[in-house]
Amino acid sequence: MKYATSPTPSRSNSLLGGNSRANSPLPAPSYYRGDCMSATMKSYKYLRRFVKFDQMDFEYAMWQMVYLFIAPKKVYRNFNYRKQTKSQFARDDPAFLVLLVACLCVTSIGMAWVLSLGFAQTILFTLYVVFVDCIFCGMVVATFLWFLANRYLRDRNSDFDMEWGYAFDVHLNAFFPPLILLHFIQLFFYHPLISKEWFLSTFIGNSVWLLALGYYIYITFLGIDVVPSLKNTRIILVTLPLLVLFYIVTLIIGWNLSVSLMYYYHYRVL
């Protein structure tokens, strides 16, 4: 169920700024900002803050990371508040991305140790995980979500387009729980249990992947569903039954996904 929000200001008002408000006989809505920036200016402001750590709210970013596990709806409720106060869904603070990259670096070192990688291979593996698995693949996923939402899910009576930056934020949010499950928690059980040729090993390893991908799909759905101009967003949840079916098939044929993907990670940097 979507959170209740005030009507979104029209694009023409946002583009014309305060002049259009001055010509209107109606008072400005509570969330109206006369200094709404273009996508280019928003991106410039976001990137510029990467080198200004004192301006990043790391405490709030850590709160988001915790609640993405225990109550992801609360995280997206705050995205809705940002839309009402700052006229944008996307984050204007890169603190979450900075912490996510830090987590990727730490967990990648742990995974490299489990994979018995050398120093140079560990560095290469970390760069792969950060810039390819997270950022590059995230940009591809965000572009797909942005296109899907604005082309097929947007209410034709609304002139509000979902921001690409917000689609990227949705990916980052959905990426964090699988990161912790697969790159951190799984490592403690990989050699003593998951890597063995037992059915229990396959069951546990594949169940971890099922939970991780289920988290990703569900959090992605919440991110799309919270946008008031989008409809039929539950179509994203159709992938969950397909995921469960694939999980059952892997158990029947004895395919240990964790072992296969560990081999993939290992030989990718050789």
Characterise this structure.
With 270 residues, the protein is mainly α. Helices cover 70% and strands 0% of the residues. The protein is globular. The termini are far apart. The relative contact order is 0.11. Mean pLDDT is 82; it is low at 1-36.
N-C termini distance: 47 Å
Described by strand count, sense and barrel closure, the largest sheet is: none
Order of helices and strands: HHHHHHHHHHHH
Classify the secondary structure makeup into a structural class: mainly alpha
Average pLDDT, all residues: 82
Beta content:
under 5%
Please tell me how large the radius of gyration is. Answer: 21 Å
Uncertain stretches:
1-36
Helicity level:
55-70%
- Principal-axis shape equals globular
- Helix segment tally: 12
- The count of DSSP E runs of length 2 or more, i.e. the number of strands, is 0
Core attributes:
disordered N terminus, mainly alpha, 270 residues, 12 helices
What's this entry about, in short?
The chain is mainly α and 270 residues long. 70% of the residues lie in helices and 0% in strands.
Task: Provide the fold topology.
Blueprint: H1 11-16, H2 18-22, H3 39-48, H4 58-70, H5 72-86, H6 95-114, H7 119-153, H8 164-185, H9 187-194, H10 199-225, H11 239-253, H12 257-268
Helix pairs in contact: 4-5, 4-8, 6-7, 6-8, 7-8, 8-10, 10-11
